[in-house]
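For homework, think about our next protein:
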Amino acid sequence: MSKLKYMFGAGLVATSLIAAGTSSFAGEIRDDLKEIRQDRKEIRADRKEIRQRKDRRELRKDIRTGASPAEIAADKQEIKADRQEIKLDRKELKNDRIELKGDRRELRKDRRELRRDLKDNLGN
């Protein structure tokens, strides 16, 4: 009878550990995926802006119409700022992907350890 109680208790503990551990890591991974989606959305918006060539069109128009050198310089600066923003967004996306990969790796490792612990506890 005591062996049955021990197995039942170990099963109960294991189930609670699995539920608690999985949900916390799942929330972390869900947050990372949300960040990646937001970063992708920002990059798409930036690419769309460049694809439309709004800033470049404005620069060409200013050059054709004989705009002041200050206005032309401002347009060039705006184009440069857009490119830097895209570069930063890509870097942020890369870092988020690396973080997500690490979280998934940690989750797999914890699940393996939990399975080993359960196997050891139930085997004894």
Observations:
- The chain has one domain: 2-123.
- The chain has three helices and no strands.
